[in-house]
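Q: Start with the shorter request: fold the first protein.
A: Done. Sequence, then structure:
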Amino acid sequence: MARKRGRDIDGWLILDKPLGPTSTDMVNKLRWAFDAKKAGHGGTLDPLASGVLPIAFGKATRTIPYIMDATKRYEFTLSFGESRTTDDREGEVLATSDSRPTDEQIRSVLPALTGNVMQVPPVFSALRVGGQRAYDLARAGKPPELPPRPARIDSISLVSRPDADTALFEVQSGKGVYMRSLARDIALACATVGHISVLRRTKCGPFDLSHAMTVDEIALDKQAQTVDNANALPAPLLDAATALVDIPALAVTEAEGRTLVWGQSLDPATLSHPMPAVSQEDDFLWRAMIGEHVLGLCHVRDGRLRAARMMENHEFFGE
């Protein structure tokens, strides 16, 4: 019988991603180091970006969509005077300007870029255009015209001005916001051009830098493991359900939990713990729990409580 590929490992590793490798590079490297059967990440960081990269193993991969949709926080440095093909320092210079905005000018343009806005993604992005990645078309000398996309930017703060050529910002945003586009748009709104020269993610959903480990803090060399600790993990993992801590908890009995796990529905009026009326709207999610253990997520559809995404299956109940 062929050996299964990798171990069944469940949980989150929050990586402080270094500059250079892609997010996929780091997932592959850590999957190998942990000898994990299944792994993924909760939100891409560009090679020239560092910071919080949540990496999910096993059951935790089921919660990746909720991390992708979660609020994120970034710090970036905007360098004025040059626009680049990639909207960061990796690209070729497109245009130059001698104009440098004052602090007051910068602050005056930020409100118009905050809230629910339409944002043009960078040409060098992973978006598909006619079945091809935008960055592949751009590298082939055929940069696509990308239409504006809805984006939610909660706040933009000018943190400091190290000099006339640079400005440091802190941004909190929702899903799918491109910081490179935001930096480009801030410069254009100030009647100049610019690009991101430094980008760091400091928060992703419930995870921030206090949870993060650097590559040097993770035992990536499997050859260094001895026979005695061959099953030890290269680093401790956070519980797979940690990604769901911001979702309200709903206590259920074992019988109710079994019903949800098996894909059947419940009448909200007969639950052991009554649900507030607001929670019965279609978009409202609950974290179904038996004691301190998270079974998964549920919601009300057609007047019935149903599983939205379960982390456990019937084996949890010994069935």
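Q: Next, the second protein, separately.
A: Sequence, then structure:
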Amino acid sequence: MSYLIGWILFAVYVGGIWKFLSGYRRTNFNSGLPGRITLALLWPVLLVSNKSYRRNFQKALKGR
């Protein structure tokens, strides 16, 4: 059972990275590759702790 939860969390994490990178051009962030990778990999932490990142994450996911 714990393996299943781990795989589900991993899938959500990777899915969040993919969705964020797919819509990255809609955000206000710089287009440099190192920053893009860092923001994508840290999305769960930044989503919880940073209001500006949350707004940009929503833009990336939903195109607003």
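Q: Describe the second briefly.
A: Residues 2-62 form one domain. Residues 18 and 40 are 8 Å apart (CA to CA).
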